[in-house]
Amino acid sequence: QHQQLQQPLPRQYRIESQAQLAKDLGEGSLPDVTVCQQIQRHGMMSREEVSRLSEARRLELLRLEERRRQGEIIIRLADLKDWCKEHLLLLFVFIINTGLAVLFISLLAAPDETD
């Protein structure tokens, strides 16, 4: 009966590429061409449209780089989420230590009520 409760392990795994993961995050080095009507109709983009999309992306990257040079802090939600995933143990330890510090300080600051 114990063996019936266990599910068999999958025989196949899907390995996702970095490009697919970046696409899922909504970021990447190429512009989003899924909204392009030309592709949906003909399956191909004209040279002018490719040039226009490339130029728009290039300008966007230049603007971001200029903002970074000026010292403006740019934090994207996806970047913050990735950092939290990478440093989950660090965050957990920090929260536990902060809680213990607050408890310890409250014990020290509490008036002595042992009469």
H/E topology pattern: HHHHHH
Number of helical segments? 6
Major sheet size, sense and barrel closure: none
Number of strands: 0
Structural class: mainly alpha
Strand content: under 5%
Global outline: elongated
Kindly state the mean pLDDT as a whole number? Answer: 76
Radius of gyration: 26 Å
Total domains, how many?
2
Oligomer status = single chain
Query: N-to-C terminal Cα separation, in Å?
Result: 61 Å
Low-confidence stretches: none
Structure description:
- The chain has 115 residues and is mainly alpha-helical.
- The protein folds into two domains: 1-74, no CATH class; 75-115.
- Helix content is 63%, strand content 0%.
- The protein contains six helices and no strands.
- The protein has helices at residues 2-5, 18-25, 37-42, 47-69, 77-86, 88-109.
- The chain is elongated and about 85 Å long.
- Keywords: Membrane, Transmembrane, Transmembrane helix.
- It comes from Macrostomum lignano.
- This is Neur_chan_memb domain-containing protein.
- The chain crosses the membrane at residues 88-110.
